[in-house]
Structure formats: structure tokens, C-alpha cells
Specification:
The chain is an alpha/beta fold. It is built from 13 helices and 18 strands.
Amino acid sequence: MIGIIADDVTGATDVAAALSRAGLRTLFSLTTDLGDDAPDADAIVVGLKTRSIAVSDAVAQSLEALTALQRVGADRFYLKYCSTFDSTPEGNIGPVTEALMERLGAEMIVTTPAAPLHGRTVYRGHLFVGDALLNETHMREHPVTPMLDSSVSRLLAPQVDGGVGLLPLETVRDGSDAIRAGIAAAKAAGNRHVVVDSVSEADLAAVAEAVKDASLVAGSAGLIGAIALGRSGLGEAATRPPTGRTAILAGSCSRRTLEQIEWFRESGGAAYQLVAEPGQSAADLAADALTWWDELAPEASALIYSSTPAQERDERIPDAGSLYEVAAGLIAKKLAERGLRRLLIAGGETSGEVVKALGIRIAAVGEEAALGTPWIHDVGRDLHLILKSGNFGEPDLFVDVARSGEPQ
């Protein structure tokens, strides 16, 4: 069984989708309380919220997840981080990686944020988003983890004690035997981490073959998806959510989420913007939004959002992000109590707060609404959610998801 430790909730759904797409029966957990019995699954994804917290806390929670996965029978492990390598000079990707390596006795680890399906590629060790270097994209202005360099090796080096090597594309294209030889050479040169170039799915397949027996690998959903394709699974059909109205809660300020909000509004969808004033509480914001929701037609899907471009953020409220995230969690909980069964959450931090408020523990991974954005099903409450990374989905995703809930 593959055990995946993801550093945020939407990233966890992305990797869960990749595993399910490869034919593996995948369970999705939002807690490290997995019990002691081996589940009927090929893979378990544990979605944490460790991307931007203190390093010591991120390490502790990740090790707790590792222990839980080992207890239920996982024997291969993957640290999943964002395909834009969201991190600071202190971490958390590097420190968590090395803590997991130490616990598993791994002397060397292969890592790559490449995910060609999502337009993320690594060439000469530099991370590209589409045709642009990482540091030339919107990620340069990320409010928590601004990415000012595109070199994965340079980004990772300050975070780790071991050396960081690079396996160039030429070696990858020579096949799995050459990749294994390159990894061994990097280890002999004193490196503990090897960043691997990959610009296509075929490149990732070659890397996956080379590392299939490794106890621990790290990267985005791209490499673990390739590893999953090389394993035989239980292969069950992905479930679909029921019809019904959909609530869309958006907190991401990414360019794509802003486009999706605008597309939804221009299509005539009902939309409400959370706008905090100094002194307002999350409960106040949630109450106002729920009053608006309750006045809508009983079958109407709707959008509640706090997302804004960087230049429009209110500097009078320095903790506005956290305020809006807590408000989103309160709104989601109250909507579920009202009987709503379909929720789309946009943004990693917002998703983390929502699942915390809802108290979701373990869910089954269903069909994808878009690439990397599956429905997850909390079977106990028959609640279906999409937890969307801010950058994922086409501009019309919100509209499509809302319309998919309408009776045919």
C-alpha cells in the first residue's frame, strides 16, 4: 500500500485524483487518526495543513502521519508538495523530507515538482509554469510563500542539511537504468537529495520505474501518478455526486480562481463577497453571508468569496486571510446543517479550515470535476466536496460544477 503525506488539503485531493485515475482504490484522510486495521485500499492520502506553519510543527505532524500510515499497512511512502514548490528559505519541504528520511532510514531521496499534466515542468533544475519560469509568474506575489527563484536546487538547499544534486533531462531520456546510475553517482558525490528534470509524462514514467522500490520519494502529484500507473490496483469505478444545489466558497487569490469568480458572476450566478471591516469577527461575516444565502431561491447554487487581487487587499486588516478562512469554515458547517450536500471550496488554506470545521475524517475519492480536482465523499454524512487548488480548473469550472448539479 502507498501512503501519501500531503502538505495541504487541496494538494491532497490532487494526488488522490492522480492515484484514482491510475486505477488505485484511494482513500482520503484529513486526520492522522487512521485506526489500527488495514483498510481495503491501494493507497491512502493524508491531507495535512503543514505548508505554512512552523517548521517544528510541520515535522511533528508529518511524522505522526507516517506512523499512522505504517500502522495500517503502508510500505511505500510519498511526500506530496505543491507543483509550484511553495516554501520559504526555512521550509517546510526540506525539513519534513529529512525528518521522514531519518525515520525510514533512507539515505537518498529523489524529488521533483514536475507535473506536465498541469503545465509544471523541470528543465536544468528550473521549474516552469507553462512557458514561464516560476519566479516570473503570479507566485512571485504569493502573500505567504513568494517564489523569487525558479531553481529547485537553490530553493531546496537552504532548507536541508544534505547536499542537493541534479539529474538532467539527458540522463532521464536514457531510461531507468541511467537514472538509477545517476542517482548513485549523486549519492557518491555527497548529495542526499536529487532534483530530477522532467518535461513530459514519458520522462516521469522513466523516473517512476527507477524509483519504484524506494521507501520514500517526494514531489508533486506528477511523479506519484506515474508510480501508481506501474502498480496494479483494485480498480473500482469512481463515484459521482448527487444532483442538487452547490455552494462555492472561494478564498484563493490566485489568478485562475479570480477568473473563475468573474466567469461565474458574468454567467448570471448569484455571488456574495465577504468584505471585513475593522473589528468584525468571522462569526459576523458568516452570519451576514448565511442571511444572504437563506434569501436565495431554494434550488439556486451560489458563490460566496473573499478572493481579491493583491492590489485590492485591505491593509487595515493584517490578518484578513485567517479571518476569511475561519468564516468560510463556519459558513460550510452551517450549510451542511441546512442539508446541503454539494460544496466546492477554492484555495488550500480555505479548504483546510472548511474540512476542520466540518470534522471530516476519511472520505472516498470520486470522479474528477476537472483535472486534479476530484469530488470526495464523506460517506457517513453523504457530503460531497471539491477541494480545489487555487490555480486548478478552467475559467468556467464554477459554472460547470453548479450546472452539473441541476436535474437533467
